Amino acid sequence: SEKTMEKIVALCKGRGFVYPGSEIYGGLSNSWDYGPLGVEFKNNVKRAWWRKFVQESPYNVGLDSAILMNPQVWVASGHVGGFSDPLMDCRDCKTRHRADKLIEDSGVLPAGWSDQEMQDYIKEHHICCPECGGCNFTEIRKFNLMFKTFQGVTEDAKSEIYLRPETAQGIFVNFQNVQRTTRKKIPFGVGQVGKSFRNEITPGNFIFRIREFEQMELEFFCKPGTDLEWFAYWKDYCKNFLLSLGLKEENIKLRDHEQKELSHYSNATTDIEFLFPFGWGELWGIADRTDFDLTQHQNHSGKSMEYFDQEANERYIPYVIEPSLGADRMALAFLCDAYDEEVVDEAKNDVRVVMRLHPALAPFKAAVLPLSKKLSEPAREVYATLAKKFMVDYDDAGSIGKRYRRQDEIGTPYCITFDFDSLEDQSVTIRDRDTMDQERVKIDDLPAWIESKLEF
Ligand code: ATP
């Protein structure tokens, strides 16, 4: 619900996950800064993706290409000219809407429709402004989503360049470089994590839709004809990745695009949607893009994008399967999924807020809590040892109960209490965030104990 979203935003701001951007200047609309806990959390999200999609995959390698690219790239990709939203303003309340979204919200998919068709449909079906109820719209205008800037000292058309609106093109233009230098054979994939920029018309819902965001994209190259098989493979792989990190199965659904909804070059597309507090939203787009992108680059650059398949003794432009995910959106999905209010004692009206994040994603893996300030010195030693291996917190302020609750709220899976007995038995008590169960563990065994909990 709206209230849950408000609570999550408040917690994020209050505990240092996400702050409003440029806040002391009154902000910059829909920009957000990741605080001390947020940066750890988002890094863990990106690390988890990299581990599954690059490190553990026998097929894939990584890349980190530049944000600024030759403008011809965007002509070839279709972003210059295309990639523009059909906008209309409500004449009564001045809110701006995407014509396709208005139609979509009325239960019809306007895939492939022209601006005129959309305009006519809206008029004929009396679709009105969701803000004010007025039915008086301007004509559709196109709006390019790419941020434009200038390279060099002169600000003329020749020096115009764009901030990339997706990371994918950096992979396509390096297809031959990567294949040649790694000597990878088809099928293989190239993964990349990095910033993308889109001048979104309707940003919002916290970090769900923002103008500066991070993407985690895989372009998986395969032999034409094997594409649907690989499409199914990566669809499963993506879903299992989310589940392995504890995302609740009932909160995700796979939505296959219907034939008429598919882009002209796509053989199949599926969105993994997540049930955010504000409703279902696209989390991950997985598309079979055939040889569209590489062919476009071959035609525009004049450089061959063909691959020589030694086994089959043939030359072809590979097909590509693209699972494309936003790091910020994944972070938001996991925050929403993990947020919980647990009634501890009904009679006392005692409710605890718990972020049930998977230990691999949690900002702190553990917090070291000395039972008394007199135990600071040896407790600090435990902290220092663990800090060499993991992000850990140290807290000696306030009652132990209050300290547990503070850690619950930020998702720390384990609280390590150093008590007076610890001096004798060289052991500490570990309290589990989710079950609140306690376990006595030797200090020397702590690193291995924590390590074992981070697997996914
Ligand atoms: P939408 O329909 O939500 O605008 P899209 O279909 O344009 O998304 P893609 O171009 O397929 O999105 O981008 C792939 C992924 O990148 C999305 O599934 C999402 O996770 C992420 N993403 C795209 N745009 C944004 C944004 N403005 N803010 C945050 N994440 C985004």
Automatic annotation (TrEMBL):
A Pfam family of this chain: tRNA-synt_2b
SUPFAM superfamilies with a match to the protein in the record: Class II aaRS ABD-related (SSF52954), Class II aaRS and biotin synthetases (SSF55681)
Protein name, entry field: Glycine--tRNA ligase
Catalytic activity annotation: tRNA(Gly) + glycine + ATP = glycyl-tRNA(Gly) + AMP + diphosphate
GO molecular function, one term: glycine-tRNA ligase activity
List of residues binding substrate: R98, E166, F213, E214, Q215, M216, E217, E322, P323, S324, L325, G326
InterPro entries in UniProt: aa-tRNA-synt_IIb, aa-tRNA-synth_II, aa-tRNA-synth_II/BPL/LPL, Anticodon-bd, Anticodon-bd_dom_sf, Gly-tRNA_synthase/POLG2, Gly_tRNA_ligase_bac, GlyRS-like_core
Entry binding sites for ATP: 198-200, 208-213, 282-283, 326-329
Organism listed in the record: Solibaculum intestinale
Span of the signal peptide: none
Subunit structure as annotated in this protein's UniProt entry: Homodimer.
Enzyme class: ligase
Keywords of the record: Aminoacyl-tRNA synthetase, ATP-binding, Cytoplasm, Ligase, Nucleotide-binding, Protein biosynthesis
UniProt KW Protein transport keyword: no
Source taxonomy: Bacteria, Bacillati, Bacillota, Clostridia, Eubacteriales
HAMAP family from the UniProt entry: Gly_tRNA_synth_B
Family according to the record: Belongs to the class-II aminoacyl-tRNA synthetase family.
Subcellular localization, as worded in the UniProt entry: Cytoplasm
